[in-house]
């Protein structure tokens, strides 16, 4: 019996390119769904008379409950699809480095646990809370919203960030070292690159389109990653190396 040196969770020993391509397409669709949800939340302008987090929260006061629901729902489904489809990247990494694959997969599990239900939906819950507190008790709305976020959002957000950094570092390292079938330069098709480029738009100022795009920075990172890996897949099929 041939034993694998890593827990392959039922994935074939040989690379199944049609399956990987399908995962990337589904992941791209999930990224687009999440982008729409983030856009619904972020499209708008801040109240320039305010400062700090209160200024940021001011743009959400005009959003309807229905908008908040669809933003939360689309992100819930889209982020879940993204997380499942990271296993296409896991297979690419596992073909060349079992060590990197283990680390990447650990990050994926954390992402799936915390990204949608731990971070995205609680973010929308916090916005919903602030919006209705401003109607019921505007003098207490900001302080109570901060407390709400610290209690019910920050713990999961912290865990999410740890797993996200682990996942991203393992992916970038594996690609940059040539441990996948892709050219080394394809490390640029990772979430941090797309996210970082999107956040540069912040320098453009307080505009509805800019705020909508920067609110969607993580989903844009996913679209950049899955889209880039799909477009360059033909360059990747020439072969791959195995870590000794």
Automatic annotation (TrEMBL):
The keyword Cell inner membrane does not apply. It comes from the Bacteria. Keywords: Membrane, Transmembrane, Transmembrane helix. It holds the Pfam family DUF6796. The chain crosses the membrane at residues 23-46, 66-87, 108-130, 150-173, 185-204, 210-231. InterPro entries: DUF6796. The keyword Transmembrane applies. This is Putative membrane protein.
């Amino acid at each position: 019996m041939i034993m694998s040196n890593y827990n392959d969770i039922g994935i074939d020993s040989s690379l199944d390119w049609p399956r990987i391509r399908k995962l990337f397409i589904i992941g791209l669709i999930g990224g687009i769904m999440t982008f729409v949800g983030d856009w619904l939340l972020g499209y708008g302008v801040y109240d320039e008379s305010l400062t700090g987090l209160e200024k940021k929260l001011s743009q959400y006061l005009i959003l309807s409950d229905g908008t908040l629901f669809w933003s939360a729902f689309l992100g819930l489904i889209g982020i879940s699809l993204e997380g499942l489809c990271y296993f296409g990247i896991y297979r690419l990494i596992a073909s060349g480095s079992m060590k990197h694959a283990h680390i990447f997969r650990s990050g994926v599990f954390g992402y799936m646990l915390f990204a949608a239900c731990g971070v995205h939906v609680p973010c929308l819950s916090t916005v919903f809370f602030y919006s209705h507190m401003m109607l019921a008790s505007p003098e207490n709305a900001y302080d109570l919203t901060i407390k709400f976020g610290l209690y019910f959002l920050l713990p999961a957000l912290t865990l999410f960030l740890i797993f996200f950094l682990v996942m991203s570092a393992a992916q970038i390292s594996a690609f940059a070292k040539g441990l996948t079938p892709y050219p080394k330069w394809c490390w640029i098709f990772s979430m941090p690159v797309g996210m970082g480029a999107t956040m540069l738009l912040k320098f453009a100022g307080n505009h509805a389109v800019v705020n909508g795009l920067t609110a969607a920075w993580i989903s844009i990172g996913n679209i950049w990653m899955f889209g880039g890996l799909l477009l360059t897949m033909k360059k990747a099929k020439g072969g791959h190396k195995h870590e000794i």
